[in-house]
Amino acid sequence: MSKIYHPYHIVDPSPWPYVLSCGVFLTTLGAVIYFQYSQLTLLLLGFLIVLLCMIAWFKDVIREATFQGFHTKSAVTGLKIGFLLFILSEVFYFFSFFWAFFHSSLSPSVELGVMWPPVGIDPLNPFSVPLLNTAILLSSGATVTWCHHSIVNGNKNEAITSLTFTVLLGIIFTSLQAFEYVEAPFCIADSVYGSTFFVATGFHGLHVIIGTIFLFVCLIRLKNHHFTRSHHFGFEAASWYWHFVDVVWLFLYVCIYWWGC
């Protein structure tokens, strides 16, 4: 029987999807146990499994894309469609948070004092740390675009510099948001306002952390000559994800921080 050649990448059987799902399950279960009984063991174990699995899985994908040549033009087209569908699923994910927020804020119930923010809630000043974080995240969007143009133009030094700025801005954003949470005059248990605020901004913060890791891996790959002017989908996916995070933050800032106060 003759061998059939095609441009698609048939992925070899991998243990990482199963191992990662077990790690995520243990992390979630450990978080519940920590919230109830203040025991960190299972949470740390789950987080460690996720971290190690992420490193191993990233290593496999980088090897397939860079050294084995499996990411052909047809394979990259499929990856692009898949990643765009993933971002679309994230859009609907955040849409549910905004739905919960507007459901309560546009028609506050009697239990909330028929007003928004609810009685007893002292909202954060939208023109202090939130505005600074907005400027930082928008600046990071500009630097990641600068990096993309530098890669396409073959300017490696500028690409490394701009991507380093992007990663640093992501870390600064996360640090400022952590500071904001510590200094917030309300908590997640303070009515539906606290719940929607911390869930929406907290999950966005988690996406910023994931995006920062994504870009940091791209920075390491960039320094190791993994990207060319025409073959750099790993970075493209990271930049798409980062721009998505930027847009979500703009909606969060306008709706929850500014209008919602």
From TrEMBL:
Main location: membrane
Localization per record: Membrane
PROSITE patterns registered for this protein in UniProt: COX3
CDD domains found in the cross-reference section: Cyt_c_Oxidase_III (cd01665)
TM ranges: 16-35, 41-58, 79-102, 127-147, 159-179, 199-220, 240-260
All residue ranges annotated as the Heme-copper oxidase subunit III family profile domain in the record: 4-261
Topology class, membrane: Multi-pass membrane protein
Top-level division of the source organism's lineage: Eukaryota
Gene3D superfamilies: 1.10.287.70, Cytochrome c oxidase, subunit III, four-helix bundle
Keywords: Membrane, Mitochondrion, Oxidoreductase, Translocase, Transmembrane, Transmembrane helix
One matching Pfam family: COX3
BP-aspect Gene Ontology terms: mitochondrial electron transport, cytochrome c to oxygen
Keyword tRNA processing among record annotations: no
CC terms in the record's Gene Ontology section: membrane; mitochondrion
Alphabetical list of InterPro entries matching this protein: Cyt_c/ubiquinol_Oxase_su3 (IPR024791), Cyt_c_oxase_su3_dom (IPR033945), Cyt_c_oxidase-like_su3 (IPR000298), Cyt_c_oxidase_su3-like_sf (IPR035973), Cyt_c_oxidase_su3_a-hlx (IPR013833)
GO MF terms held by the record: cytochrome-c oxidase activity; oxidoreductase activity
Transmembrane helix in keyword set: yes
Entry similarity comment: Belongs to the cytochrome c oxidase subunit 3 family.
Function: Component of the cytochrome c oxidase, the last enzyme in the mitochondrial electron transport chain which drives oxidative phosphorylation. The respiratory chain contains 3 multisubunit complexes succinate dehydrogenase (complex II, CII), ubiquinol-cytochrome c oxidoreductase (cytochrome b-c1 complex, complex III, CIII) and cytochrome c oxidase (complex IV, CIV), that cooperate to transfer electrons derived from NADH and succinate to molecular oxygen, creating an electrochemical gradient over the inner membrane that drives transmembrane transport and the ATP synthase.
Protein name in the entry: Cytochrome c oxidase subunit 3
Annotated organism of origin: Clava multicornis (Club-headed hydroid)
